[in-house]
Amino acid sequence: MTMKKKLIILTLSVIGFLVILDTNIMNIAIPEIQSGLHVSLTDLSWAINIYTILFASFLIPFGRIGDIVGHVKLLNIALIVFAIGSTISGLASSLNVLLIGRSIQSIGAAVMLPSGMILGFRQVEKDKRNKIIAIFAATQALGAALGPTIGGFISQYFGWHWVFLINVPLVVIVLVMNLLLLSMKNEVVKKIRIDFGGTVLIAGTLFLLTLSLVEGRNWNWLSLKTIGCLVSSLLLLVIFLYHEQHSSDPIIPLKLFRNRNYVGANVVIMITFIVLASYIGIIPTFLTKVIGVSELHAALLITPMSITLLFSTPIATKLVGKVNSRILVGFGIIILSISVYLMGHLNLENNYNQLYLVDILLGLGIGSIAGPAMSIAVGRLEGTELTAAQNVLNVVRNIGMIIGIALFLSLLDGNIDSAKQNVHSYATDRIENSKLPKVVQNKMINKVKGNANTSQINSQSIKQPQISTDQTIKMAKTQTKIIIDTKSNAGIILPTEIKQQLYQKVLVTTQNKVKVINHELKGIFKDVKQYIHNQLTDAFLKLYKWELPFVVFGFLAVFIFKEKQYK
């Protein structure tokens, strides 16, 4: 491969990395953005959702347009659109402006990814395409995995605005490289008509599907809106399939799905990216809310997974054609299953060694599937079939990420609610069975009831209750005054010296009682804090125990692949 082609591949890889990175780079910066724009978390979540929904909706239609007008021209225009959207998002002073910017970003991204990949495939002969597929698969998966780390670093040291603005200089560099390396003159185009009916139907199908998955947690999964979107999406999909079957220039040639390897690749890609999303979407929150590390530290703790992924993907992809497809993909699913099992049994009390092991295994598992599956799926395709095939794979990967995050956050919400109820019941029982005076017990129980409606529980933020020295003195003075007043009402007037002696005696008695109470409170606090920690740990980690059967069952997908693969 010439130096020019290597530079082209490098440039196009950066484009794919940027597109996938922006699907989740802002997630970890949400608290800072929320404070800066003074909006609710629910409203701000649309800045993420709008990018995800529009990106998934337009991937397939825009990929087809590139075949008609030329992928180089369309890619350069898309880069400018993406940079404009990033600038608007970075300079936003209100939520509405941020949503406009993110929408523009997503439209540019929906062109950049498919056009960039098609142009990359064109740089080599078909029999050498595996190398390009390996590079693209690794850099794009890396973008998904590194999003929290890069977002956390940028927001902490440069502010949330630069989470978006960082794209602008990178896009300028990439655009200049494109103009120097890729000619827009005499570009190869296809003389095919735009399938407007198919375009509208598939865009509508994906829009309603992603909308229901993204908003199902907020709307309620069984609400009329969620079910309506899912049913409408399914109906549009059926109409789309019928339309494509009778179209002379289908946007997705349905004969692709007669290929067992292509179907198998889509299934295992979906499984792989659901697992990846469940990891990068849940574990950083577990590390911050339960273990007590900072957002940036949490992001750094999952970075070894990205490094392993970067190295394992090209190695595994090189084995396509040399090793049986079933063995190659099956190995990846087995490693994924082991990593998910370990996620469900994480113990980070003393060190992070188990987490590092999960990072390495997960990166190895994803790398052993992502690159090989894409290579097996599109390695022998050309022209419009290649465009359609890789667009569908991109959509499946994106839907997998959406399902992983939406489903796991919804399940986590339910687990947290159960944990809160358990914590409040345990705390109440622990207080009632303590040696605390009834007055103190009642105050503590009322405080627990008052916290029953709080949105979150966090073992790291609760403070140990205790009676302070000032409160002890105040209690002693109050008790002394009651004794003096009682004697006064009985006609006994105590001299000042006696009053002082009485106060000192009451103070010593009060201090001894407070010492006992504080010791009891310390024991209660320690037990409740540990119980909260255990409940939260269980709330997070049981998600992976539920996920494990799904991943193990996914091993059956390897039998979809043909036993023999092309060489």
UniProtKB/TrEMBL annotation:
Protein name: Major facilitator superfamily (MFS) profile domain-containing protein
Chief location bin: membrane
Organism of origin: Companilactobacillus paralimentarius DSM 13238 = JCM 10415
All residue ranges annotated as the Major facilitator superfamily (MFS) profile domain in the record: 8-445
Annotated TM spans: 45-62, 74-92, 104-121, 133-154, 160-182, 194-214, 220-242, 263-284, 296-315, 327-344, 356-379, 391-412, 543-561
Pfam families in the record: MFS_1
Bilayer disposition of the protein: Multi-pass membrane protein
Assigned GO CC terms: plasma membrane
